Every structure is written in structure tokens, then in C-alpha cells.
Amino acid sequence: MSRLIIVSNRVPALGDGGAAAGGLAVALHAALEQHGGMWFGWSGENSGDKESDRLQTTEVGNITYALVDLTKRDLEEYYAGFANRALWPLFHYRLDLTDFSRRDMAGYFRVNRYFARLLAPLIRPDDIIWVHDYHLIPLASELRQMGLRNRMGFFLHIPWPPPDVLFALPPHETIVRSLSSYDLVGFQTEFDAENFAACLIREGFGSRVGTQVFDAYGRLFGMGVFPIGIETQTFAELAAASTSDVLVERMRHSLDGMQLLIGVDRLDYSKGLGERIQGFSRYIETNPASRGKVVYLQVTPKSRSEVPEYADMQKEIAELAGRVNGSLGDVDWTPIRYINRTVKRQALAGLYRMARAGLVTPLRDGMNLVAKEFIASQDPEDPGVLVLSRFAGAARELDGALLVNPYDTEDIATAIARAMNMPVAERIERWTPMFERIDKHDVMAWCHSFLEALKRTRVMARAS
Ligand code: ADQ
């Protein structure tokens, strides 16, 4: 069997099967164990001004971890710069937040070339290479220029924008051309795949030569839709066993019979936190009977604090939650509990299960795993209701959720009211098919289907 080479910007902690890093890491570890192979990426270390070509390799069973440090400049330009201040906002349709620095752009391509230079000598001719996410789009074209002919796949975890948004990015053609160097490019939803095809075709960069096959820049390559899943059974089991968790017990005790609404998101402008808090506030204003009866818990670890937009938002959201509590709360009732910390998976599963409603209202999201984790964690006899943004990839699959427009405060408020008053029979009817779906299409199935498609793609591309 061919070895599998996984390349991602961050590599999860070694040797724990990825358990600490969540479902995606667990699934990729399982695939690596099955094939044998290597996980290559940034070590997470900043080497300051010191450039080094030193690879840190560790063997754990049949998996090699190959990590590289990046310099302060590399991190500023490649990671905090082009990846997180140009590609991330633009791919989430936020042209207003996109920074088109040419210096960062050059750094992004330079670091991809550097990764390729270190990776290429480690690759054997029949290895299969699977590259993850927007940080590493140019990797395959760099490897091809170094003469590698391996099967290479790419999966984009975030949305792909429509042509008019993408074309605002100065190097948009280089980005599209880079993707044509892969044999298979995978997206989360049909919408993303359609947007990508439209970008390719509208500017004449390439043409469709089969339902899922494109001809561009002298290469045939496949495209596919692979909605990512979670470890559904693990979450369901953790949730069912969570009554013994200390944090979950403390939460239950503190609720003292009040109903819980929950939101769990990294602190990121794509997650729609401000709009969600406004929607909750509107719900309380328009449903006076809910005062003193409900609590909204928002668990939000800080992320990417080195990017200025994130530091600003940190302040904005904390102030907004404080203002709503100040104007709506009472001496014995704080409507919003806003906490900036990570929570262990068992506790998270228990909190999801305790909640009458899960609020997942991103302005734009590739998939959104929290939506699926919330569904997986529910009590089948008394499930909570998912209030879900129509602009999350998960909305394509979770059709028993109450779908909302996350920009519309009234819509969020109305959906919360509906969720809080929904009879148990309707909750079960909505929840059951959603659970069955995410159980069948879990993260292991996702990983398997991408790899199977990647193994088939070249044969298909040649034949068409
Ligand atoms: P993210 O933008 O990080 O992922 P999401 O899919 O919601 O978004 O995943 C977040 C993960 O972090 C979840 O597993 C969640 O449980 C965890 N998490 C969040 N807050 C936490 C907290 N306070 N404590 C502990 N854990 C917490 C990107 C894309 C998504 C896509 C994923 C996977 O932006 O659209 O779904 O990749 O492809």
C-alpha cells in the first residue's frame, strides 16, 4: 500500500492519536496508521531571526512527524499576514477586512516553497500526498516544479468565494492555477465547488471536461464535495457520561432550574458573535417572561490575537456582552455568561446536552463542527434545538435545525423563542434524522471518502 503524507500548517501533539486536538486529527491519525506515512508541518515554534533548514523528525509507530520552525518574519508574512489577513477574510466574503500587502503575499509563496524544498526529499514515488487548507494552496505546484509526479489532493476547510469576491485578490489567478496542480481538490459544500468552477470558467482559466473533471493550465484534475464530519459516537458517549463531570455539575447547579442556551466558538469575526448577542438581547426584550428564566452561555477562547482585527474584536464582544448584561440583567440574574477559555471535550459535550438550544450563527463558515457536536451530544428522549446560520456549510446537511439569517436580529430572536417553546415531540422529530445523518457521515467516513476519491482521480482524469 502507498504511504500517506499529510501536510497541514499545524501538526497536532505527537503520540496521543490526536485526541487532544479533536476529531479531524483523530481521523487523520487513523488514516496514517492504516497506510503508514508522515505528517509534515510547522512545529508551532518561532525561531526568531534564525533561519534553519533543520527538520525535526520523530517516529511514533509507523508514522513519522516532520516539523519545521518558522522565523518571526515568515510567521508575520505567511501566517498572520497573507493566510489570516488576506485569504481568511476574503474567503469568508469580508473584503472590508482583507489586507492586500504585497510583502505578505511574497512571504506566503516563499514559505510554501520552503516547505516544498524540505518535504520533497522525503517523498517516495508512490506516496499519496494530502494537503490541508488555505495556508498551503501553492504547495503542490512547488512540488511539481521540483519534479514530483505523486498523486496529490487538497482539501479546503473554509468556504470558496464567488468570482467577484475572489477576483478582488491580486494574485487570484496564481491561487487558481496552484490548485490545478493537485489531482483532486475537495470542498465542504456544493456551493463552494460551484463557486470554484465559476472562477475557473468565467475568466477562461480552464474548462469543465467531465462532471467533476477540469482541464486547466495543461492538466486534468478532479474536484469533489466532501462535507467534513465529527466523531459522532464519541461525542454521544461523552455527553451521556458527562453527569459525573465537575464543570458540568457546577453549571447545572448554578442554573438552578433556568434554561440554558449555548454558543461555542473561537473568537473570530466570521462566527457572528456580535449579531448573535444582539439577537439574544432582542429575544429577551420581546419575551419578557423569559427574564430570570434563561441563561446564554458563550464559551469563546481567544484566537489569532497577533492579528489586529482579532484584538479589536476581543474588546468589542466583551463590551457588548457587558452592555447587554448591564441593561437587561438584575441583582439575581446575569443573562449572558461570556467566558474566554477552552473547555475539555467531555465537559463541552455535557454542556451541549444540558442546553435547550445551541446557537450556531456564523456569518459564513466552511462547515462548522460545533453544530454537529451539539446534535451528537443530545439526549435522544429530550433533545435540544439547533439554531443554525443558513451561511454555515452545516446548514446543507442539518435540515432539522431552525435556519436563520445571522445578519437579521429579529430572525435570530424569533428562532430562539421558537426553540425555547418547542414541544418535545417536534424536537425529537427534527433531531433524529440529523443525528442519523452525522452518525453515518462521521469524520472517519469523510477521511475515507476523500482518500478513496484521490486514489481513483488520476485514472478518471486520464480516461476523460
Ligand atoms: P473553525 O473555524 O475552527 O474550523 P469549527 O468547525 O466550529 O470552526 O471548529 C471549532 C472546533 O473548536 C470545534 O471542534 C469546537 O468544539 C472547538 N472549540 C471551540 N470553542 C471551544 C472551547 N471554548 N473549548 C473547547 N473547544 C472549543 C475550520 C473551518 C470550519 C470547519 C473546520 C473543519 O472554519 O468551517 O468546520 O475547520 O473543517
Number of helices: 16
Main β-sheet, spatial strand arrangement = 3-4-2-1-5-6-7-10-9-8
* Sheet of most strands: 10 strands, mixed
**Bound ligands, named by name, code or SMILES:** adenosine-5'-diphosphate-glucose
Q: Quote the distance from N terminus to C terminus.
A: 26 Å
Spans where pLDDT lies below 50 across 5 or more residues: none
Overall, the morphology is: globular
CATH topology of the largest domain: Rossmann fold
Q: Helix proportion of residues, in percent?
A: 40-55%
User: In the CATH hierarchy, what is the superfamily of the largest domain?
Assistant: Glycogen Phosphorylase B
Mean pLDDT: 94
Short summary of the structure?
By secondary structure, the protein is an alpha/beta fold.
List the helices and strands and how they pair.
Blueprint: E1 4-10, H1 23-35, E2 37-46, E3 56-60, E4 63-70, H2 72-91, H3 102-119, E5 128-132, H4 139-145, E6 151-155, H5 163-166, H6 172-179, E7 184-187, H7 190-202, E8 206-210, E9 213-216, E10 219-225, H8 232-240, H9 246-255, E11 259-264, H10 273-286, E12 294-299, H11 308-328, E13 336-339, H12 345-354, E14 357-360, H13 369-376, E15 385-389, E16 402-404, H14 409-421, H15 424-440, H16 443-463
Parallel strand pairs: 1-2, 1-5, 2-4, 5-6, 6-7, 7-10, 11-12, 11-14, 12-13, 14-15, 15-16
Antiparallel strand pairs: 3-4, 8-9, 9-10
Bound molecules: adenosine-5'-diphosphate-glucose.
Adenosine-5'-diphosphate-glucose binds next to α13.
